[in-house]
Amino acid sequence: MSATRLPNPSLSAPASELTVALVGNPNTGKSTLFNALAGMNQRVGNYPGVTVEKKIGRTKIENTRVIVIDLPGTYSLSPKSPDELVTFDVLAGRKPGEPIPQLIICVVDANNLERNLYLCSQVLEMNLPVVIALNMVDVAKRNQIEIDVAKLSEKLDVPVIPIQANRKLGLDELRRAVISARESASLRHAVFSTEFLTTIEPVRNHLINARPTPHADFLARRMVLDTSNLVAESQLDEGLNVKIEAAREILRKQHRSLAAIESIARYRWIENLLEGVLARQDKQAVLWGDRLDKVLTHRVWGSLVFVALMAIVFQAIFAWAGPVMEGIEGLVGIASDWVTRTMPDGMLKSLVADGVMAGVGGVIIFLPQIFILFFFIAILEDCGYMSRAAFLMDKLMSRIGLSGKSFIPLLSSFACAIPGVMATRVIENPRDRLITMLVAPLMSCSARIPVYVLLIAAFIPNTSYLGGVLGLQGITMFAMYSIGVVVAVIVAFVLRKTLLRGPTPPFVMELPEYKFPGISTVMRRMFGQGWAFVKRAGTLIFCVSVIVWALAYFPRHPDTEAGVRASFAEAREQVELKIAAGDGEPEELDQLQQEIDNEVSSVYLQKSFLGQMGKAIEPLVLPLGWDWKIAAATIASFPAREVIVGTLGVIYSVGADADEETELLRDRLRNATWDGSDRKVYNAPVALSIMVFFALCAQCVSTLAIMRRETASWRWPIFTFVYMTVLAYVGALITYQVGSYFLL
Amino acid sequence: MLSLADLQPGQQGTVTAIQGDDQITARLYEMGLTPGCKAKYLGAAPLGDPLEFEVRSYRLSLRKNEALRVDVIVD
Q: ipTM surpassing 0.90, yes or no?
């Protein structure tokens, strides 16, 4: 062989490629490490939850191109939910189309070595080179935990690299270890007894005969030990099933329970491993985290802090975003003015000014609020409070048959139902997961903020109580959020009692240590979500804005305009005569001219496709206090609810005089009147009725599409769409009828 | 036989067994509640459930229903 070896030209190019998978328990700083390794060079799913979506990054170590796969945090490779099965399938190379890992970095929290090593011991059986990244060694030191890293590495026979992912310390050592470990031989740790291994031998042999796999040992263990059968399901045949059951039968006779075998063996192995490696000083002083926890989970103080935190978040969304929003509003106004002045009249100008600028510009304005909301969500998540929130809320959630775990997906849904629906993957129980998913779109997502802000600012008086602490506008906003929550509670309860009956699932959750939130983690999440929103505004909302503009612009027959102008001819002549006689002011003619132009626009809109659609359903929405324009705008916002602001912008700017100063949409809404009368369309009950409709309606194609993906059927998205639309109509109806009784 | 749910705040017990042989049992074992392991009851959530324990030097939260499955001997 050596005789035929020729110089390989490809050797001068970057040597090779290496695929590395990151695994670890939740709350180990795994995502922080991933970000530190991959930097900006990462591809994240469209709507990232925290660790739910699979993330793939690229980096280069020495001459090697490295692909890093960030897998969802998990306590065990024994999958109990679809989420955990993803981790397993990627690691075992069973996921078609995904890069197959050649090395595993196991991220371990130095403060929690015992339980973290459980996952490690499973990873070590995967017949792949492993490097252990021992994270948060600084915190461990502060907690007076001493780890003999050299000894641990020696006993495990794999590299153990102490790191501080948040401060990017130890990463070079980790990179070097990855490169030198890539060829390392796999190891055998005697976790299980020979007796056990003999028992599962037939399963292992069956797997090897069926198809060659480097993971036969590991797969056999999983298939026999996991009563969830998730691993076995994908390749189950009659013969394999018989062998699995036979092995289980023997094991059940030997042991207390099948469930206990693996954990008892692994924790015994871990205890031996940590002998002489881990030293813990007896806790003398109460740690600050303990003291904080005493307050935050306290019966009275904990609940107060929770309510106060939520109130601060809502107040901040309103108060802090204001100045920035005005700035953006100003810029959009300037751009719009510029277009109006420089472009020639016609269809294209109308498209740019009334379609694109009004539509997209009207939505971009709400970016500051989305940033603020995600800023808070990211901080609460990163500092460890989110789990406490689940702990505090569990009893309440269990009343409606859900668990505290549903709280986090539902809270995320306040930002956007899409990551919320995806975050439901952490809920093991399928029924719980489905219910959470079905009510998630009822949480007031950030796309509803534009609707609320616009209508509240325009129609709810800025009255304040208790010396400015509480404002009527803030209370209204809070009420809109509350309506979604209350309705979600009722819907979840009803579903639990009817369509989705079943036993209450368990609640087993780690309460992670408190830590100071990482600035880069918070910023990354905040800007990531903000960017996702901008992309939506730039693509989906752009498309919808153009479509809506087209529906409002066409059909455009010149006879329509001529007809309107002709009907005003007599009036115009009279005014002209009056001015010629010296009886009137020239302004009167301008006023009339303006009136005629508005009438032209109005008639065009009435005759447009959108106008026709709105008029067709006007009888249906009259009991809600809506005119056909609101109906038309609502129709247009079914694909994505935030579009309503843009649509209203289009509807009310059609026919706006080119030389006129750009009016705020708010003022236009205030001045809008019913066709053929001076009666104002909008008042507080109408504004509330629109807001309630938008709070409850499933106006988001993306959410329904995600639901279809997660449930693998159209049944539940259609169900959601129907029930939410019906609720929205009924809710808006009650709001308007009751509201006009009391407020008018 | 006492269970984890019977401990008083601040009281510590040693796990002897977990009742059942299902997914919940498997999860409880995986989280470290194996026979011989110490568990200290720290307190309950404001509404009385779930409960918080210190297990293998981390904090674990369980509902009363699950804590009832874990047999302990009080230390």
A: yes
